[in-house]
Amino acid sequence: MDEYISIDQSEFQEDKYSRLRLIPWWDQAKLSGAAIMVVGAGAIGNELIKNLALLGVGRIYIFDMDSIESTNLTRSILFRMKDVGRNKAEVAAERAMEINPDIRAKAYVANIIDDVGLGFFRRMNVVLGGLDNREARLAINQSCYRVNRPWIDGAIEALSGFARVFVPGHGACYECTMTETDWKLINKRKSCALLTHQQMNEGKIPTTPTSSSVIAGIQVQEMLKLLHSDRNLPTLAGKGFVFNGLTHDSYVVEYPEKTDCMSHDIYEEIVDMPWSVSKTTIWEAAEKIREDLGESASVELDREIATYAACGCGEKKELFLPVHKLSAMELVCPRCGKQMNFESVHSFTGREPFADKTFGELGIPPLHIISGRKGMQIRHYEFTNDTQMVFEGMED
Ligand SMILES: [Zn+2]
Ligand SMILES: [Zn+2]
Fold this sequence. Notes:
The chain is of the alpha/beta class. It has helices spanning 2-12, 18-21, 28-32, 43-55, 88-99, 118-122, 134-146, 174-177, 180-191, 197-200, 209-227, 282-293, 387-390, and strands at 35-39, 59-63, 104-108, 126-130, 151-157, 160-166, 239-244, 249-254, 270-273, 298-310, 316-322, 341-348, 369-374, 377-383. The protein folds into 2 domains: 22-254, 3-Layer(aba) Sandwich (Rossmann fold); 270-387, no CATH class.
């Protein structure tokens, strides 16, 4: 009899997740074992992170470059007055672990467009966006597709907003939804290399803690369904949930998939390499890639690297950074003050005069994935030795 009672107790013991488990398809282990990336710790990001912490999502990786301002406090449950001036991601990570000590959260003060290796995305179950700009959304979209990971975008304005789910191979991606106006705005920003981060944040939109909690709530619910993919729950893949808080309308839109979309490139074969961007040189990678694919194989990057700048006056200088990060200031000739021209490259043979440079010296982020190509044959290689450094403190 005693034995019988003790079995019953262990079976029905209440813990803080027991009410969640009442949902028939719920598997708390899927949540505690999940790695979720949250990009942006603003109004939506705060609500996303709060929900993830409450639900017991095991690992939360939070990205934001900005600091907390007093104006954030009306829309950010995780921030207090005393946090003003501190980094948003760092405070959000601390508060998430306060809400639920079962979980771990780590802050990254990094630019999602340039500074996050594809291997990072590859290790996430789902990526959640709480962003305010198209360029970052497009970068996340391309990264997620390459390593075949779903991402969920959220956007709000005043009392309204929408949540969209993008799953590689299942309908439209973010780029498919982009209009001509979206592209114009992105290209306008790209052409203004001198814009500071502060200036880029201008054009602020009105946001509320109410619309952000509605939209972030939908985003996290969609994430839950994706984590329980074996339960065949209906998801919003390739679709958007639109919420108009003013008129109480809500509806689902299905986006047409563009057959010529540039973002649908999924890396078929990724090889884990004992490489690190701070140590591995172009020459070393080229050697390995030639060994794998043949003598005429080359190393390919997913970004253009500016190599040298030259001026009509004869002045020459080294650049070695992604073209995207190049500022007009760097192209001012130190000798005559005129604008210098520069060369750029995204493919290497390993025989370049600068082939002894490491990938880190080219501005390639840790845990990134590069490609080897020979004609139509292509294989992808990850800087896997960066894993420990990138995820420090989040290991089991
Ligand atoms: Zn697309
Ligand atoms: Zn000059």
